[in-house]
């Protein structure tokens, strides 16, 4: 349809999909899984899949709204602190006799308020999200640790905690994946198939242009921060139940793992580019690499080095590609002003 | 058009090179892992003990795990040490799961949370892996044995007897603690008070101050203590941060050598203050012995020699015979005293 308008779309859809960043990440997940399956003892067990998904669930959940936030060119560093706050709150309220359902609901509401506070400061006061969420990272974590101190609340009803680790039949897939899938579908529809989602990309490419073309930039940003707040609180509830332990310091440092996975999945840190399937594959890629290397007895430092290098390579590949195609475009058009293909917004 | 062909070629090339880079990494680990996979298949039969410290790169756990390694190798088993970079329970769970999946004979772990790693440990036990905790325990139902470094009574008594000996069993002393609400500190201080009234009636505890396990606060509180109590003859600091800060203050003050200082400290932190005469003797359990004992307990469980019930006994190499107490607790023994004569033998 748009083949004639945009040079980048000169190839059919299947070919564009096959050569996309998302496809590369998904291919890597498949290649490494297949290699691990035949080379690493115990990697082929369904238990590997179970543990991998259970370990990555919190990151998978938060990566969904985080992707939308990063595509607008903003960032939310306070997510792990909201996880901790939600965990501490569920523990504290439950300890004081409130039912589990009510405690969880209260945690979700607090997550919403935390997100709205971030969103208000970023969208309506106009402060940079990096600065705002570094502040709330400390603020929310401080409140979380203040609520419970150094103690942990652990006396949760076993019905709830057991539920957090149940498996669907003999598949090895944790039941919590259903919750993730539902949220993933909602966020994919929102980002890739709705006017709201197109507005998100527009903001990422140019906030002003988006404003002029009728996107409510402020409201969109506010909503996205509310989404990260609520989903982080949900992840905090899951985290608490999965480990049966509510602590203010739960999930410390998780925000960087989430952002690393989002970037690995092909989202540009400058906004405007990226797709959710790629991000989900990015999270799984980190999970597959870590669990394969752990089973091989590789130490955590080496695992981190490999994932770090992979991340640098993936970011580098985007920049190098943009630069190469920019140079190529200049050459082929002689001295005409360069025009970057739509798919690769140069930074 | 040529631009685009070139571009897609570049994308493909980049994709392939990333894939190659990865398989390159993977290849390397296959080679190093092929010997490991051989031993993993024999794991069900051979003794294979996995140490999981609170975090890697911590000198205390390097010392304890060195003891574990010595013991496992003496028993002819395979020793490995895995663990997270930061001391968080969720990261430990991943390593417990991996060890259980590999059917390790036993896991020896210092728990980052008494409950959060519980379900992972239970699963490991169900798949036949024995579980020994050391240094930090979980709730008793999640492990077979807890190797306790020292009993609160032993810790309190060693420090009280130590300071009494150094000041001639009479005079004023004070305590420099960590945080005012630190559970273990307060338990020890209560026991110290009992020991003082019972065994050392002439030693008078005049003050307890809190340095919050912060170096500067502990340093300042030490200075304040000496000003408020001019007749002070000794200070007990049952925290490694406190004793080091107090020693640093005393070593440059005029009270050096006149006011005795003891407590719980690590040899590496305290070495120079012992050598310059500020501190005569301080105490701590020996982490290397702790790891050594934990490894022997794990091996005894794995071989089926003991089950971890009260009254079971086993031999822990050069440390001698041990008995399992109530709740599956094995006690390492009295704290080790560190002084000028032996401090150079320790590195943690």
From TrEMBL, chain A:
Question: Main localization of the protein?
Answer: membrane
Xref: Pfam families = BPD_transp_2
- Give the source's domain of life in one word: Bacteria
Q: Give the transmembrane ranges.
A: 23-43, 49-70, 77-94, 100-123, 130-153, 165-191, 222-241, 253-271, 278-295, 301-324
How would you describe this protein's topology in the membrane?
A: Multi-pass membrane protein
Places the protein is found:
Cell membrane
Listed GO CC annotations:
plasma membrane
- MF terms in GO: hydrolase activity; transmembrane transporter activity
Q: Which UniProt keywords apply?
A: Cell inner membrane, Cell membrane, Hydrolase, Membrane, Transmembrane, Transmembrane helix, Transport
CDD domains (alphabetical): TM_PBP1_transp_AraH_like
Record-linked InterPro entries: ABC_transp_permease
Query: PANTHER family from the xrefs?
Result: ABC TRANSPORTER PERMEASE PROTEIN YPHD-RELATED-RELATED (PTHR32196), AUTOINDUCER 2 IMPORT SYSTEM PERMEASE PROTEIN LSRD (PTHR32196:SF71)
Tell me the protein's name: Autoinducer 2 import system permease protein LsrD
The organism encoding this protein is Nostocoides japonicum T1-X7
UniProtKB/TrEMBL annotation, chain B:
UniProt-listed InterPro entries: Bact_Solute-Bind_Prot2, Peripla_BP_I, RhaS, SBP_2_dom, TAT_signal
Q: Main location per UniProt?
A: other
A GO molecular function term, named singly, is: carbohydrate binding
Q: Which GO terms describe its biological process?
A: rhamnose transmembrane transport
Which subcellular locations apply to this protein?
Answer: Cell envelope
What's one Pfam family here? Peripla_BP_4
Span of the signal peptide:
1-28
Looking at the UniProt record for this protein, which Gene Ontology cellular component terms does it annotate, in alphabetical order? outer membrane-bounded periplasmic space
What Gene3D superfamilies would the database entry show?
A: 3.40.50.2300
Domain Periplasmic binding protein, first and last residues per copy: 49-305
- Keywords in alphabetical order, please: Signal
The protein, known as: Rhamnose ABC transporter, periplasmic rhamnose-binding protein
Q: Which organism is it from?
A: Nostocoides japonicum T1-X7
């Amino acid at each position: 349809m748009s083949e004639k308008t945009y040079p980048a779309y000169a190839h059919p859809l299947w070919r564009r999909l096959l050569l996309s960043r998302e496809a590369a990440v998904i291919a890597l997940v498949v290649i490494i899984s297949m290699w691990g399956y035949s080379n690493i003892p115990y990697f082929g067990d369904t238990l590997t899949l179970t543990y991998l998904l259970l370990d990555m669930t919190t990151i998978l959940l938060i990566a969904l709204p985080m992707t939308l936030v990063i595509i607008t060119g903003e960032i939310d560093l306070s997510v792990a602190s909201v996880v901790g706050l939600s965990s501490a709150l569920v523990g504290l309220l439950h300890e004081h006799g409130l039912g589990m359902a009510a405690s969880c609901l209260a945690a979700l509401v607090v997550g919403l308020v935390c997100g709205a506070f971030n969103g208000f400061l970023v969208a309506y006061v106009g402060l940079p999200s990096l600065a705002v969420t570094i502040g709330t990272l400390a603020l929310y974590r401080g409140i979380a640790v203040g609520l419970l101190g150094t103690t942990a609340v652990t006396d949760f009803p076993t019905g709830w905690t057991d539920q957090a680790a149940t498996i669907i039949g003999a598949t090895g897939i944790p039941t919590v994946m259903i919750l993730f899938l539902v949220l993933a579908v909602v966020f994919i529809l929102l980002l890739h198939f709705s006017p709201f989602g197109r507005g998100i990309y527009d903001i990422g490419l140019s906030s002003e242009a988006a404003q002029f073309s009728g996107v409510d930039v402020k409201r969109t940003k506010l909503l996205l921060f509310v989404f990260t707040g609520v989903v982080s609180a949900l992840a905090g509830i899951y985290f608490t139940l999965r480990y049966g332990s509510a602590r203010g310091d739960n999930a410390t440092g998780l925000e960087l793992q989430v952002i690393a996975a989002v970037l690995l999945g092909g989202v540009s840190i400058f906004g405007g580019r990226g797709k959710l399937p790629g991000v989900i594959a990015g999270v799984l890629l980190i999970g597959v690499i870590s669990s394969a290397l752990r089973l091989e007895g590789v130490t955590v430092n080496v695992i981190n080095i490999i994932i770090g290098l992979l991340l640098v390579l993936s970011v580098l590949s985007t920049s190098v590609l943009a630069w190469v195609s920019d140079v190529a475009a200049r050459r082929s058009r002689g001295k005409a002003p360069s025009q970057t293909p739509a798919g690769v917004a140069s930074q | 058009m040529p631009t685009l062909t070139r571009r897609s070629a570049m994308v493909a090339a980049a994709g392939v090179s990333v894939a190659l880079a990865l398989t390159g990494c993977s290849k390397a680990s296959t080679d190093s892992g092929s010997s490991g996979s051989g031993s993993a298949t024999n794991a069900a039969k051979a003794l294979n003990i996995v140490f999981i410290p609170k975090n890697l790169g911590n000198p205390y756990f390097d010392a304890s795990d060195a003891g574990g390694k010595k013991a496992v190798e003496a028993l002819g088993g395979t020793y490995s040490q895995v663990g997270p970079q930061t001391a968080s329970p969720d990261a430990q769970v991943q390593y417990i799961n991996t060890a259980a999946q590999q059917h390790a004979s036993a896991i020896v772990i210092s728990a980052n949370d008494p409950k959060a790693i519980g379900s992972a440990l239970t699963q490991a036990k169900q798949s036949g892996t024995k579980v020994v905790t050391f240094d930090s325990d979980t709730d008793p139902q999640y492990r077979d044995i807890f190797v306790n470094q020292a009993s609160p009574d032993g810790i309190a008594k060693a420090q009280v007897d130590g300071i009494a000996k150094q000041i001639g069993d009479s005079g004023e002393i004070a305590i420099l603690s960590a945080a005012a609400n630190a559970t273990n500190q307060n338990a020890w201080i209560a026991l110290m008070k009992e020991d003082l009234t019972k065994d050392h009636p002439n030693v008078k505890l005049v003050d307890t101050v809190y340095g919050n396990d912060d170096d500067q606060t502990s340093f300042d509180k030490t200075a304040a203590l000496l000003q408020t109590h001019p007749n002070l003859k000794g200070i007990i600091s049952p925290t490694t941060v406190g004793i080091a800060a107090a020693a640093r203050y005393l070593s440059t003050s005029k009270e050096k050598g006149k006011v005795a200082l003891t407590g719980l400290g690590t040899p590496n932190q305290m070495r120079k203050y012992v050598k310059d005469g500020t501190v005569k003797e301080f105490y701590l359990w020996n982490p290397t012995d702790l790891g050594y004992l934990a490894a022997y307990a794990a091996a005894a469980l794995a071989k089926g020699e003991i089950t971890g019930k009260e009254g079971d006994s086993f031999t822990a190499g050069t440390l001698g015979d041990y008995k399992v107490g109530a709740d599956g607790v094995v006690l390492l023994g009295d704290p080790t005293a560190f002084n000028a004569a032996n401090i150079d033998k320790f590195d943690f």
